[in-house]
Amino acid sequence: QVQLVESGGGLVQAGGSLRLSCTASESTFSLRGIGWYRQRPGKQRELVALISSAGNINYADTVKGRFTVSRDNAENTVYLQMNSLKPEDTAVYYCYAYTTTTHWGQGTQVTVSV
């Protein structure tokens, strides 16, 4: 079981920025993919951004141009840089990784005030 530990959530005003971090318990080289999902109030969990082992990146349309996902393999860490935050970005953000199974972090709250 891969352990994923997130940090970096918090409260920010609209237009501001936050950076989330997720450190994995094993090398990110061993993961087929790693990235971020979020669950907004009253909504289902949704993909935010994902990096495959080949380095391919997928973003949700709602965050393209504002969020950037990156990976530091030496630190077994994936980051989510979130800029130009909007109130509708308010959600619990979950780190996600997959090998032959899926693995989830505990989630970190991001709240964007108007």
Summed up:
With 114 residues, the chain is an all-beta fold.
Quantity of strands, as a count: 11
Q: What is the typical, i.e. mean, pLDDT?
A: 95
Euclidean distance between termini CA atoms? 39 Å
> Percent helix among the residues?
under 10%
Order of helical and strand elements: EEEEEEEEEEE
Low-confidence region ranges: none
Tally of helical runs: 0
Structural class: mainly beta
Beta-strand content estimate? over 45%
Task: Characterize the largest beta sheet: strand count, sense, and whether it forms a barrel.
Answer: 7 strands, mixed
Tell me the Rg in angstroms: 13 Å
- The rough form would be described as globular
Describe this structure in words.
There is one protein chain. With 114 residues, the protein is mostly beta strands. The protein contains no helices and eleven strands. The protein has strands spanning 4-7, 10-13, 18-24, 33-39, 46-52, 57-59, 67-72, 77-82, 91-98, 102-104, 108-113. Strands 2, 4, 5, 6, 9, 10 and 11 form a seven-stranded mixed β-sheet that branches. A hairpin with a 4-residue loop joins strand 7 (67-72) and strand 8 (77-82). The relative contact order is 0.32.
